[in-house]
Specification:
- 2 copies of one chain form a homodimer.
- In chain A, the strands form 3 sheets. A 7-stranded mixed sheet of chain A has the order 9-11-8-12-10-13-14. A 4-stranded mixed sheet of chain A has the order 2-7-5-6.
- The first copy, chain A, is 27% helix and 23% strand.
- In chain A, helix 1 runs parallel beside helix 3, helix 2 packs parallel to helix 3 and helix 5 packs antiparallel against helix 8.
- By secondary structure, chain A is an alpha+beta fold.
- At the A-B interface, helix 1, strand 1, strand 2, helix 2 and strand 5 of A face helix 1, strand 1, strand 2, helix 2 and strand 5 of B.
- Chains A, B: Pfam families: AIRS, AIRS_C.
């Protein structure tokens, strides 16, 4: 993303649309990058203008983390966010869930011919704001254009690089029987907010997506109990149920939940009832689940509740010794059921 | 990409197709990842099964490089390659062009509902082979599915992380008047090979894409003349002409080419004549252009010619002092012309 030639006239962002030339590597592509992307994402690494960004390495003793995600959410704009901020939050969170401090992001755009430049600018501005707020610059990127009918407006693939400080060991494989399960807040808002905007489903709701960057919450948790946080995961696609099944399988343990302890907003409950969904399987984009050592649970929970994104944090269950690696749940009605993997399709294009 | 639940029956790769469930984060998504992606890309980092990959950092004194690219080539399979190996080569090369040793790759797939699993497996196998051959593992990834008619088979976004050894300083901004321009081989093959397969253009040709990973060529060049290599670029989308204009602009210099010195295969020349294209603007995926200090030119050129991917390497011109930053070329016919930026659309979806 270098200094480029002078353009005859500036991009007409108000009325213009993406055309195939914006992806062909010539003057039009350079202009789009200069006047739309580089201007919004501006930072000294992006300004290097090479095929990649050259970056300082973290201090010795740190390990690196790479995480990547494609974002194909539909619709592109939803209550509480859009594909732009979502693509930043999602990848910042994936890096943070490995116990790493997110340092840099890359962004690759696949644009559909005919997409309004005004909408693209809105998405890019949201992305830039999310990156700035998170303190994680977008250091390099790419733009491709596909013909109308071969894409769907905008797809954004983001990759994050982070550094794990010495002494931090967080992995989905580290849960042990007796550990405590913590959840940072209420579940299901992102999925319901997106579904409420689908043409086929459109319903009125006051629910907004919880999309948010969780890395400062993670930092507070790790600081509160060094060595006490064993697993961190953000329950996105597939929801809390899927995430917990992944942890159980990866750590070769069972999990035992208390349904009554899992916070669900009444509006989310109502919408899920209407749609025939179980909030346990609905995506979140600003929540995390943690497995912590029993002796660290109080300190970590207090640190979560003291953070703006963890005020509703709570204990939702514990890790058990179970050779079948089941996630079981005591229901509100006094029964117990297995919370299984989701079988079929539930919510496509939710992120 | 963790250990997953047991599946009722294995994926039917021969007859199966991508459905929306493969992107929904449940059991079907996990099975696709396990049986297709994880099996092909197998390495200890991918096997960690967390939201990202935790990786050893390079030795102290190294800087990091991040590069990212979306790959939307159409058609997905072309003579000499496919979107799979292309997505590895393209990103390995972008990292290498920053003077870095490529260490790790990430891959994010956007799949269209209905895409045959057999084709996907072929692409993934090609990608895995390219990564293995390059010695750069795919350490983490993501898979999304969009409805039929909202994508185009497979899009792949790859991100590469590399390390720049101490003392290496390569940037598009480093060209100085008097420097020598080197090209690693003949131009235009990738673009012509892809175009030859387009339904609308389909023509018979023996030309195959030059798609290749150039990082070992770069390493040999850097080794041959420490500090002597100032700029490295792979002339992909937009071709050699666009790349040279980018360098001229970024370094605030002029460039002066000898047309007769630029190798073009006769079949590429003939195809370009047929299609009304100038090979200078046609994409390459296995070539590089270098700006080297005059005193280093002989050594770097010899190192290139000794490498299998640089056997045809040659001097094609030099860097001049030009306040207008023009790329000029002495033509075969004794004239001189400005090699300008490409204005409109030339070759969409070539990579």
């Amino acid at each position: 993303m270098s200094t480029r030639p002078d353009y005859v006239r500036p991009l007409d962002i108000k009325h213009g649309r993406i055309d195939m030339g914006h992806g062909a590597g010539g003057r039009a592509a350079a202009q789009l990058i200069d006047e739309l992307f580089a201007r919004a994402f501006h930072n000294r690494f992006l300004g290097q203008g090479n095929d990649g960004a050259c970056l300082p390495a973290p201090p010795p003793g740190h390990r690196l983390v790479l995480a990547t995600d494609g974002h194909v959410v539909s619709p592109l704009f939803f209550p509480g966010g859009d594909v732009g901020c979502l693509s930043v939050h999602g990848t910042v969170n994936d890096v943070a869930m490995c116990g790493a401090v997110p340092l840099y992001l890359t962004a690759s755009f696949i644009l559909e011919e005919g997409f309004p430049l005004a909408d693209l600018q809105r998405i890019v501005a949201s992305m830039a704001a999310a990156a700035r707020e998170a303190g994680v610059p977008i250091v390099t990127g790419d733009t491709k254009v596909v013909e109308q009918g071969k894409g769907d407006g905008v797809f954004i693939c983001t990759t994050g690089l982070g550094a794990v400080p010495p002494g931090v060991e967080v992995s989905g494989a580290n849960a042990r029987p007796g550990d405590v399960l913590l959840l940072s807040g209420s579940i299901g808002e992102h999925g319901v907010a997106v579904l409420s905007q689908r043409e086929s489903l459109g319903f009125e709701t006051s629910i907004t997506s919880d999309t948010a960057a969780l890395h400062t919450l993670v930092a507070a948790m790790l600081h509160s109990a060094p060595g006490g946080v064993r697993v961190l995961r953000d329950p996105t696609r597939g929801g809390l149920a899927t995430t917990l099944n992944e942890i159980a399988r990866q750590s070769a343990v069972g999990l035992h939940l208390q349904e009554a302890a899992i916070p669900v907003l009444p509006q989310v409950d109502a919408a899920c009832e209407l749609l025939g969904l179980d909030p346990l399987y609905v995506a979140n984009e600003g929540k995390l689940v943690a497995v912590v050592a029993p002796e660290a649970a109080d300190a970590v929970l207090a640190a979560m509740q003291a953070h703006p994104l963890g005020r509703q944090a709570c204990r939702i269950g514990m890790v058990t010794d179970d050779p079948q690696h089941f996630v079981q749940m005591d229901t509100r009605f006094g029964g117990r059921r297995v919370v299984d993997w989701l079988s079929g399709e539930q919510l496509p294009r939710i992120c």
